Amino acid sequence: MNPPPLHFLRRQPRSQLGRCLFFTLITGALQAATLDVLIRNGTVYDGSGRPPVVADVGLAGDRIAAIGRLTNAQARLEIDATGLAVAPGFINMLSWANESLLVDGRSQSDIRQGVTLEVLGEGMSMGPLNAAMQRDLVAQQGDLKYEIAWTTLGEYLDHLVRQGVSCNVASFVGATTVRVHEIGYANRAPTAAELERMKALVRHAMREGALGLSSALIYAPAFYARPDELAALARVAGEHGGLYISHIRSEGARLLEALDEFLAVVRAARVRGEIYHLKAAGRANWPRMDAALARIEAARAAGLPVTANMYCYTAAATGLDAAMPPWVQEGGFQAWVARLRQPAIRARVRQEMNAPATTWENFFHLAGSPTNILLTGFRSEALKPLTGKTLAAVAQARGRSPADTVMDLVIEDGSRVETVYFLMSEENLRRQLQKPWVSLGSDAASLVPEGVFLKASTHPRAYGNFARFLGQYVRDAQLVPLEEAVRRLTALPAANLRLDRRGLLQPGYYADVVVFDAGAIRDHATYERPHQYATGVEHVFVNGVPVLRAGMHTGARPGRVVRGPGYAGSAAR
């Protein structure tokens, strides 16, 4: 007989008789069983959002074998989880680990927070690539160096797993990527023939297992895409069960208009939708969040399947490209730099940077002051000493205006320069975290505080986002109960992505499991010292294999590609 799932207990009256019946059934089914792993006496949060129970969790191979009182069961590895929370592995809905995992597959900063699945591909994905895009990807590499041994998105994911990764990996196909593949960095609509080829690329990626289509509309060349183009591509993703997920066109002065555009694309494409890193950016725009939340909830009440994700910080992280208008960036990086060398164009850019913008997302202005702009990553060794300094400090030291300093740094570094912008309000952040349709994403790479990764700073969310949620906002501020917080990290994103047998602790599901101390979990990374691991996660299993034991990484790399519902197996190749 197959043991009943944990939710069997949840459906029964919460009585001692019901508990005894459940545990008797489980124990009887496993009297003589030998498991690979037995996690004993943990407080089990199964991901459903229901209250926890104290139970044992048995793992066999890559699956959860049973949950209950497994008194007579034996295992090759037994863990005493008394007083600890046992939950499904956490899902990072917005990860930028696509390059960091190529360099170090251990995914340490996220594994140590309980993350077992990295979801990649915000707007730009690691495939499909043509020859020019492959050359550009090599030319754009900074401290992290890697060979490009793939062309399609599916090939990239397979390459990661062949190299060895401790976490599972999945990806959206980027709307920007398929646009660049066909029309480069031009500011124009695709022709009918180009759009058909773009749709074919999305279709192929979906059959390879992409989770859906993503866009990031504040950046060139994504900024040049219009709603009808996005809807046409999203419709293809939807035909294969995929999600349309978007960094919407504005999170500032035109937040509500951008939200309306997103909802219109979702409706036109007849697809599920999700908003990346929900926020209201810039002090003047903080009051817009109330209307934004109301609009999303009205759409949901009307039956539109839309959700959002976010991170737990009031600063964003991107590049200095977000401080300059998209028109100056048309044609790619070299064309952008060439324009910035022209005095007349510099004067126009300077003027636009210093003014409120309604036609593009001006992070330079939204930050409110150059003291709220922190420089975190340079390619040039000559500029690396500026890492961790504010734009205000660098501009003053150089005797240049802040706007001119931004332009100078992009030219000198040969990159967009990684940057943190302080933009959001704590009050809005807390309000958003209480919404039952909001999941979590770090919007960062998964790093290790050693070697090449120490050549740059980073946003503390790379090391602390999930621990910060569970520690500061769930345990300390009590914004949501722990069982609901676990659901937001597990079953909610798994359901939104339509993942196969992940996101719940339930017999037959894949054995992605995290064991943590709910009373001690906390983040330690700061803006000044971001390369610091979170603490409080004791054990992590990925596909049944221990990758974290007693808070220490085991070196195991059992990660797999997690594919979307449109996966066609070998037929996609």
Mean pLDDT: 94
- In terms of DSSP E residues, the strand content is 15-25%
**Please, how many helices?**
20
Helix content: 25-40%
Instruction: Give a count of the beta strands, DSSP E runs of length 2 or more.
Output: 21
Largest sheet: 9 strands, mixed
Give the terminus-to-terminus CA distance: 39 Å
Roughly how many Å is the radius of gyration? Answer: 24 Å
Tell me, briefly, the overall form. globular
Q: From the helix content, strand content and strand pairing, which structural class follows?
A: alpha/beta
Stretches where pLDDT is under 50 for at least 5 consecutive residues are: 1-29
Q: Strands, helices and their partners?
A:
Layout: H1 6-11, H2 16-29, E1 34-44, E2 53-60, E3 63-68, E4 74-80, E5 85-88, E6 90-92, H3 100-103, H4 108-111, E7 115-120, H5 131-139, H6 153-163, E8 168-171, E9 173-174, H7 175-183, H8 192-208, E10 212-216, H9 227-239, E11 243-247, H10 255-269, E12 272-275, H11 288-301, E13 306-310, E14 315-319, H12 333-340, H13 343-353, H14 363-366, E15 373-377, H15 391-398, H16 402-413, E16 418-422, H17 426-433, E17 438-440, H18 461-476, H19 482-489, H20 491-497, E18 513-516, E19 537-542, E20 545-549, E21 552-553
Parallel strand pairs: 1-4, 1-5, 6-7, 7-8, 9-10, 10-11, 11-12, 12-13, 13-17
Antiparallel strand pairs: 1-2, 2-3, 5-18, 14-16, 15-16, 18-19, 19-20, 20-21
Helix pairs in contact: 7-8, 8-9, 9-10, 10-11, 15-16
